[in-house]
């Protein structure tokens, strides 16, 4: 398999595929067909891996949202599905992908001239998958649930029989809600409450190799409450889009203060300028001639 990818067998017909920069997608195999949930940033050719795992089964790609680091690999497949409202800004995402890869090459994280799915493949003719839609793989059924926040119509995919939710970027240790297409922090909090009532026990996300439990949602709710409390955020700049900024709110009771840890809890919301404290000026005095 391609050395740019790391494949982990999670058992019971589920594999995690991580790319060279840590983006993750999930391959699900049933008796009659297979599904690839998200498709990574598109660095390297993911098709040989998918073909080896799928065997002779047809593969459907299910995308959680429209961002380039989740859709790029889908340019190598034909049956690709996404919520209708996420089928927007395709040209912008292609430009963002090319810019991100340039930066990764400059940083030495990606070899120059490496295979790029968005360049080598073709823009897929998307079909739509909405909340309540079901894909039967044969012994495994996948159901869609809208999880708005990171984008306006992000969707999670519930593996019913396994009681596992693949949620993309709908929940992350450092929750990103600073994009123009992101919804307010209060709306994301409502999504977390919705998740507490959904029929799953564990969930997996798009950028960490970690299986969370429903009990972990309490920490994410607390980080949302902290960001909504009027706390003063830290100014934060996005690496891959020039001029895009946000305000970072680190929950003081976060189980870890390591931003690379799966236990970190923080929210990056829309940029809020920090107020400057005005210095008091001494009144002029005759003594100093001012």
Question: In words, what does this structure look like?
Answer:
With 290 residues, the protein is α/β, with parallel strands linked by helices. It has a domain of 189 residues: 4-Layer Sandwich (Metallo-beta-lactamase, Chain A). 20% of the residues lie in helices and 24% in strands. The chain has 6 helices and 17 strands. Strand 8 and strand 9 form a beta hairpin. The longest helix is centred in the middle third of the chain and has 17 residues. The N and C termini lie far apart (77 Å). The C terminus is likely disordered.
Briefly, what is this?
With 290 residues, the chain is α/β, with parallel strands linked by helices. It has six helices and 17 strands. Residues 277-290 have low confidence and may be disordered.
**Class of one domain, according to the CATH hierarchy?**
Alpha Beta
Rounded mean pLDDT score: 93
Can you identify the CATH superfamily of one domain? Ribonuclease Z/Hydroxyacylglutathione hydrolase-like
**SSE pattern, N- to C-terminal:** EEEEHEHEHHEEEEEEHEEHEEE
The level of helicity is 10-25%
Please give the largest β-sheet: 7 strands, mixed
How many beta strands in the DSSP annotation? Answer: 17
Helix- and strand-based class?
alpha/beta
Low-confidence runs: 277-290
Number of helices: 6
CATH topology descriptor of one domain:
Metallo-beta-lactamase, Chain A
- Looking across the biggest beta sheet, what order are the strands in? 1-2-3-4-5-6-7
- Return Rg in Å: 21 Å
- Large-scale geometry: globular
- Which CATH-level-2 architecture of one domain? 4-Layer Sandwich
């Amino acid at each position: 398999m391609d050395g740019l990818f790391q494949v982990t067998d999670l058992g019971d017909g589920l594999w995690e595929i991580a790319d060279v920069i840590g983006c993750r997608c999930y391959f699900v195999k049933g008796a009659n067909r297979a599904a690839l949930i998200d498709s990574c940033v598109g660095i390297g050719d993911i098709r040989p891996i998918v073909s080896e795992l799928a065997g002779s089964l047809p593969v459907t790609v299910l995308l959680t949202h429209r961002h380039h680091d989740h859709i790029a690999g889908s340019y190598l497949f034909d049956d690709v599905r996404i919520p209708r409202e996420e089928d927007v800004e395709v040209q912008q995402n292609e430009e963002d992908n090319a810019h991100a890869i340039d930066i990764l090459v400059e940083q030495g994280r990606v070899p120059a001239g490496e295979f790029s799915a968005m360049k080598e493949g073709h823009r897929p003719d998307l079909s739509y998958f909405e909340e309540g839609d079901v894909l039967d793989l044969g012994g495994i059924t996948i159901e869609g649930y809208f999880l708005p926040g990171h984008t306006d119509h992000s969707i999670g995919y519930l593996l019913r029989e396994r009681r596992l939710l693949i949620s993309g970027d709908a929940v992350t240790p450092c929750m990103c809600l600073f994009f123009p297409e992101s919804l307010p922090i209060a709306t994301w909090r409502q999504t977390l409450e919705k998740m507490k009532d959904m029929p799953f026990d564990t969930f997996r996300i798009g950028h960490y190799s970690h299986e969370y439990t429903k009990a972990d949602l309490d920490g994410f709710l607390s980080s949302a409450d902290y960001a909504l409390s009027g706390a003063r955020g830290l100014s934060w700049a996005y690496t891959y889009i020039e001029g895009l900024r946000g305000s970072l709110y680190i929950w003081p009771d976060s189980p870890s203060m390591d931003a690379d840890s799966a236990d970190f809890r923080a929210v990056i919301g829309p940029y809020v300028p920090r107020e400057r404290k005005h210095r008091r000026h001494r009144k002029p005095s005759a003594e100093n001639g001012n």
